Amino acid sequence: MQGIVSLLDDPYAQIVHDIWDELKTKCGIAGTQVPQFPHFSYHVAGRYDETLRPLLKKIAAGQKTFKVNTAGLGIFNGGNPVVFVSLVRDSALSQFHESIYPILSSTTTTSLAYYEPRAWTPHITLAQGDLTPQNLPDVIRVLNDRNFEWEISINNLTWLSDTNVITRYDF
User: Fold this and answer.
1) pLDDT tens string 90-124
2) Are residues 42 and 104 in contact, defined by beta-carbon separation less than 8 angstroms?
3) In what order do the strands lie in the sheet with 151-154?
């Protein structure tokens, strides 16, 4: 899988890495570290074609750094749960997502429906993959007393694969 994301910079990237390490140590949860880059996603697809690169560069050139706020922990429930820090989907973030979504979709035939503007739930993943309904309570116990109300400066649009940054364009 590949995605168009904004990578988190420090201190929040380090905070997320520290949480991943703690969940691995205390709960045996290691699946989140693929991809190993703390981020939130605008669009995910099986693969994008190379026409994406100049489009991302153009979008980033016209964008200014902006802030996003988080609002605590969330869970995508089911057989393969995901624990995440939820982003506040304010009008500015929604408008940015809605403006780039059709551009990103035009460069692939394998878009994931979860990222369509009407369904998009922006988030920073903390635990997934080897997270199960059985070990979910342990993860929640570890994270429960933390403050997840963050204000994060976003300054990049990045093409990410499961294993590496394909390209990053800073605003």
Assistant:
1) 999 999 999 999 999 999 999 999 999 999 999 99
2) yes
3) 123-127, 82-87, 66-76, 151-154
